[in-house]
Amino acid sequence: MFDTLQDRLAATFKNLRGKGRLTEADIDAAAREIRVALLEADVNLAVVKDFVAAVKDRARGTELSGALNPGQQVIKIVNDELVTILGGETRLLRFAKRPPTVIMLAGLQGAGKTTLAGKLALWLKSEGHSPLLVAADLQRPNAVNQLQVVGQRAGVQVFAPEPGNGAGDPVAVAKASIGEAERRLFDVVIVDTAGRLGVDADLMQQAADIRDAVSPDEILFVVDAMIGQDAVNTAKAFAEGVGFDGVVLTKLDGDARGGAALSIARVTGSPIMFASNGEQLKDFDVFHPDRMASRILG
Ligand code: GDP
């Protein structure tokens, strides 16, 4: 991931390394190179503009401190600005004061929601929680079964529709799952919802109805990082149609450029909370903006 961006930024910093002090021309040249690097990484244009302006401003205003050479100073500024566009502080999951904590997953079909549900459940288990997976994706014929398989792999219970608990009606299933969690003392409920291939009104309405029925503590928008700037557009549609508290980026392992990762927090104003980087349930982690920035800078 970030292959080209990493190389391009490294080249920019290398050019500054030998300088005794930063001139206006050095800063302009570096800013141009950073702009090209970010655009090549498919970062959203508005984000690129803000980013480059902030780096330039800070580079100009920097007093040369004895400890850092000009190259190091620019690296520090770029690092800080990367952390900022990636969301700043790590945003941890908020748990309800009174269990169960309800987490709702929303996103397009194929984004990796069902897989993510299993990953999140496994991770929560390792953190000492007792999660319940809820199959509220009744659109795709195989979705319930897929969640059951994922639940089995994670060693987590799955609440699936059967006559009496709202078979065929995802809103009723989601609602019934809360009572089930209360009775059986699950402290986190993870509701997997239906996704379509493209954003559509019915999908949004169904997700909004589920949201209204279960009042989630966290709505997580799950998005495939490999779709690049389409991730940003899809996020905007979900923000309007359903609303969400945080983003989960999936398939980071297949995303060489990193445009979605670098754009989505800033464009949506919502933090990236988790990252998924493989098909195995263990390929999952809390998203740390500072660590991601360090990785980009190599
Ligand atoms: P859903 O339709 O949103 O529920 O998506 P699924 O969970 O069914 O995932 C769609 C496909 O993407 C499946 O083949 C998953 O194995 C795959 N997948 C999910 N997450 C990741 C990931 O982080 N990396 C990779 N490489 N594949 C993933």
Automatic annotation (TrEMBL):
Subcellular location per the Swiss-Prot or TrEMBL entry: Cytoplasm
Catalytic activity line of the entry: GTP + H2O = GDP + phosphate + H(+)
Gene Ontology biological process terms in this record: SRP-dependent cotranslational protein targeting to membrane
Keyword Magnesium: no
Signal peptide boundaries: none
Domain of life: Bacteria
GO molecular function: 7S RNA binding; GTP binding; GTPase activity
Annotated EC: 3.6.5.4
Residues that, per the record, bind GTP: 107-114, 192-196, 250-253
UniProt entry keywords in alphabetical sequence: Cytoplasm, GTP-binding, Hydrolase, Nucleotide-binding, Ribonucleoprotein, RNA-binding, Signal recognition particle
GO cellular component: signal recognition particle
Span of domain SRP54-type proteins GTP-binding: 271-284
Stated family: Belongs to the GTP-binding SRP family. SRP54 subfamily.
Record's comment describing the protein's domains: Composed of three domains: the N-terminal N domain, which is responsible for interactions with the ribosome, the central G domain, which binds GTP, and the C-terminal M domain, which binds the RNA and the signal sequence of the RNC.
Subunit architecture: Part of the signal recognition particle protein translocation system, which is composed of SRP and FtsY.
Purpose: Involved in targeting and insertion of nascent membrane proteins into the cytoplasmic membrane. Binds to the hydrophobic signal sequence of the ribosome-nascent chain (RNC) as it emerges from the ribosomes. The SRP-RNC complex is then targeted to the cytoplasmic membrane where it interacts with the SRP receptor FtsY.
Protein name: Signal recognition particle protein
Organism of origin: Friedmanniella luteola
Residues of the full protein shown: 1 to 298 of 518
